[in-house]
Design a protein that fits this description.
elongated; 8 helices; mainly alpha
C-alpha cells in the first residue's frame, strides 16, 4: 500500500527539491550555531574552574580541564567548517536552478558531491548528510558514493605531542598569572598543614566536580 501511495504521490519539480534541500541545510546550520554557542558558554565555566584549580595548586585538575578545552575548541572548529561547507552546498544548489529551468531536471554537480562526501565523514552531521546523499543521488545531482574512511596520515605520537603543546598554551592563556604565583601558594599550603582526612575529602570533591564538568562538555559537544 505504501508503494502505491509513493507511486501516486506527485514528484517534486527541480526547483521545489532545491528549496526543500536549502531549507533543511539552513535548519542544520542553525542547529550547528546553537551547538557552538553551548560549547563556548560551557568553556567559560571551565576557564573559571581552571583558575580555581591553579589557585589551589591543583595542576593535575587544571591540566585535565585545559585538555577538555582543547578538545572543545577543536570540536567548535569542526562545527564552523561543517557550517561553511553546508552554506557552500546551498550556494551551489542555488546556481543549479537556472540550469534546471533550461533542461527540466537537476544536473550532476561534482562540487556538491565532494562537499556532501566530506560532511558524511563528520560525526556531528553524518546522519543528516547520508539522508541528503540518498535524496540527491535519486534526483541525479550526485553519483552514488562509497564513504571510505581515510587513513590518518599523522602519527599518533605527533598528535599527542601537539595536544600537549596546546594544553600548555591554554593553561598559560587562562591561568598564566596564577601559575606564576604557584610556588608561593604551595608554601602557604605547607604552612597550613591541613588534616589528612580533610584533604582527601577535598580531593574527592574536586574529582567529582571535574567529572561533572567533563560530562557537561561531552554533552554539549555531542
Amino acid at each position: 500500500m505504501e508503494k502505491v501511495k509513493n507511486l501516486l504521490k506527485p514528484k517534486a519539480n527541480p526547483q521545489q527539491q532545491l528549496r526543500d534541500w536549502q531549507r533543511k541545510l539552513r535548519q542544520e546550520c542553525r542547529n550547528i550555531e546553537r551547538q557552538i554557542r553551548d560549547v563556548e558558554r560551557e568553556e567559560k565555566a571551565v576557564q573559571k574552574a581552571i583558575r580555581e584549580a591553579a589557585k589551589r595548586n591543583d595542576m593535575v585538575s587544571a591540566k585535565a580541564l585545559a585538555k577538555e578545552i582543547v578538545c572543545s575548541r577543536k570540536a567548535v572548529n569542526r562545527l564552523h567548517e561543517n557550517r561553511a561547507q553546508m552554506n557552500s552546498i546551498s550556494m551551489h544548489l542555488g546556481e543549479s536552478v537556472a540550469i534546471a529551468r533550461t533542461v527540466g531536471h537537476l544536473s550532476k554537480s561534482t562540487e556538491v558531491m565532494k562537499l556532501v562526501n566530506n560532511l558524511m565523514k563528520a560525526p556531528e552531521v553524518a546522519a543528516t548528510m547520508q539522508e541528503f546523499s540518498k535524496e540527491m543521488t535519486k534526483a541525479g545531482v550526485i553519483e552514488e558514493m562509497v564513504n571510505d574512511s581515510l587513513d590518518d596520515a599523522l602519527d599518533s605520537e605527533d598528535i599527542e605531542e601537539e595536544t600537549e603543546q596546546e594544553v600548555e598554551k591554554v593553561l598559560t592563556e587562562i591561568a598564566g598569572e596564577t601559575a606564576a604565583q604557584l610556588p608561593v601558594a604551595a608554601r602557604r599550603e605547607k604552612l597550613k598543614q591541613p588534616v589528612q582526612t580533610s584533604a582527601e575529602e577535598e580531593g574527592d570533591d574536586d574529582e567529582e566536580e571535574l567529572e561533572a564538568i567533563r560530562a557537561r562538555l561531552a554533552k554539549v559537544r555531542s
